[in-house]
């Protein structure tokens, strides 16, 4: 299952969310392959490294941790300064090093080891709540662990690009932060969607934010969902008005 059903629910925002999903799936090609297949504890580390950091830098930092420590228990036991040095390329390594160690320590204490495979047997809301009870793990990280890892559970992550597209298209309000947006955006999509379809939804909105709906100077003129985006319509309408004034002063 990768494309939304043809009959959207009555709720207007749900209908818009489904229309955007279909349109962007057509542009970016659903189903989208998963970008890796890490175990859930490794995905937790990867997700904590990625906060406000480019994928290339967080990927290098993750590989550096793997190379330096034989397992995650060894990382927990290492001096925080050494871990910080290992991940120096990411944003805020001085905060992320002790946070990663503390999160792994909490997993080990609560689960009896560094294995999160048992989350697969929980409903998604319970699995997310279990993870988010650990200080430093929020909605984005919990969703990423369940969705991106080998668990392949139907959780919807929302990153900054996804969030920006959702705000500009009016799926969420202008004052809704990334954290609260997770529940709102998931509720707009069919409850029965499987992990692949939810992953597709996140990926196409993220890709659209990276390739078209830029933070500065979005390319509204070539946007596949311009007719569904009040922000883009306002921008292009204002530009047309300025161009008209310039041609006919």
TrEMBL record:
Give start and end of each HhH-GPD domain.
49-211
Q: Name one GO molecular function term.
A: hydrolase activity, acting on glycosyl bonds
Please give a single GO biological process term from the UniProt record: base-excision repair
A Pfam family it matches = HhH-GPD
Q: Which SMART domains match?
A: ENDO3c
Which parts pass through the membrane?
Answer: none
Which cofactors, by name?
A: [4Fe-4S] cluster
Sorted keywords for this record are: DNA damage, DNA repair, Glycosidase, Hydrolase, Iron, Iron-sulfur, Lyase, Metal-binding
Superkingdom: Bacteria
Q: Which Gene3D superfamilies match?
A: Helix-hairpin-Helix base-excision DNA repair enzymes (C-terminal), Hypothetical protein, domain 2
Q: Which PANTHER family match?
A: HYPOTHETICAL BASE EXCISION DNA REPAIR PROTEIN (EUROFUNG), PTHR47203
Q: Which family does it belong to?
A: Belongs to the Nth/MutY family.
**What's the protein called, per UniProt?**
Ultraviolet N-glycosylase/AP lyase
Classification from the root reads: Bacteria, Pseudomonadati, Pseudomonadota, Alphaproteobacteria, Hyphomicrobiales
- The encoding gene: pdg
């Amino acid at each position: 299952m990768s494309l939304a059903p043809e009959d959207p629910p009555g709720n207007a925002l749900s209908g818009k969310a489904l229309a955007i999903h279909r349109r962007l799936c057509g542009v970016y090609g659903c189903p989208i392959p998963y970008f890796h297949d890490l175990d859930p504890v490794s995905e937790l580390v990867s997700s904590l490294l990625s906060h406000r950091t480019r994928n290339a830098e967080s990927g290098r930092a993750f590989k550096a941790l793997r190379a330096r420590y034989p397992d995650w228990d060894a990382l927990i036991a290492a001096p925080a300064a050494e871990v910080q040095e290992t991940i120096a390329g990411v944003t805020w390594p001085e905060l992320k090093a002790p946070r990663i160690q503390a999160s792994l320590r909490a997993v080990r204490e609560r689960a009896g080891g560094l294995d999160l495979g048992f989350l697969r047997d929980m409903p998604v809301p319970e699995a997310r709540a279990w993870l988010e009870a650990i200080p430093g793990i929020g909605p984005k990280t919990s969703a990423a662990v369940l969705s991106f890892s080998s668990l392949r559970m139907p959780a919807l992550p929302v990153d900054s690009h996804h969030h920006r597209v959702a705000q500009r298209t009016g799926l969420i309000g202008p004052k809704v932060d990334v954290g609260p947006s997770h529940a709102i955006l998931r509720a707009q999509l069919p409850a029965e969607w499987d992990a692949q379809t939810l992953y597709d939804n996140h990926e196409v909105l993220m890709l659209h934010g990276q390739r078209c709906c830029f933070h500065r100077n979005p390319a509204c003129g070539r946007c596949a969902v311009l007719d569904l985006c009040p922000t883009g319509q306002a921008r292009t309408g204002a530009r047309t008005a300025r161009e008209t004034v310039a041609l006919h002063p």
